[in-house]
Amino acid sequence: KPAVFIVRGGSDGLSFREDEGMGLKAGQTVKMRLDKVAAEKLGDDDFDYAAFLDLSALAWCALAVGTCQSVLDYVIPYCNDRVAFGEPISHRQGVAFIIADMAIELDAMRMMVWRAAALAESGKPFHREAYLARVLCAEKAMKIGTDGVQLLGGHGFTKEHPVERWYRDLRAVGVMHGGLH
User: Which among 155, 150, 148, 151 is positioned nearest to 170, based on CA atoms?
Assistant: First the structure.
């Protein structure tokens, strides 16, 4: 039966090596090596491993929702302020539709996460809802990140604007939990 164990930091046999990934720099991803370490089992024999994984999926989804909100909050004023051909680029239907789609997808992500979290918090079954949130968030987070970079054009690839970092983080969130893409 699967279980979760806690290994105390600094334990003999526990070592880490930096993992240079594409995103999640704030999370400092590492490769962990366990060599005959002392560990404590988390929970008792009634520990719900499946629920633990589902709650973990919701945590990744929450990261995606927050980061996507940052992207949306950044691109709206950028597109309103950026002038091309004598008017803000947000006046172009193609730009306005992308921003509208981002907002709709973000709201759908948020609602799916809230629904699953509310069921979990009330002690009701939430596996299906957590899975659906995970699938939706993995797909739409990467799309919102890509669209954010696209809306900034050449600026989307520069470190002068935070959207390029959020793009990398959203790509990571999309693949880190469960490798859906």
Answer: 148
Distance CA 122, CA 117 (A): 9
106-150: per-residue pLDDT in tens? 999 999 999 999 999 999 999 999 999 999 999 999 999 999 999
Q: Which stretch of DSSP H or E encloses residue 114?
A: helix 93-121
The answer to whether 3 and 41 are in contact (CB under 8 A) is yes
pLDDT at 23: 56
Tokens matching residue 29: 């991803």
pLDDT at 26 exceeding the cut of 70: no
More confident residue, 26 or 95: 95
List the one residue out of 38, 40, 45, 43 whose CA is nearest residue 14. Answer: 38
Per-residue burial over 80-95, b if 16 or more Cβ lie within 10 Å, else e, is eebeeeeeebbeeeeb
| Closest to 71 (Cα-Cα) out of 110, 108, 103, 113 | 103
**What is the predicted pLDDT for the residue at 181?**
39
- Helix (H) or strand (E) holding 15, with range, is strand 14-18
The residues with which 5 forms a beta bridge, in sequence order, are 41
Contacts of 138 (CB under 8 A, 6+ apart): 64, 173, 174, 175, 177, 178, 180, 181
pLDDT at 21: 62
Dist CA 65 CA 109 (whole Å): 7
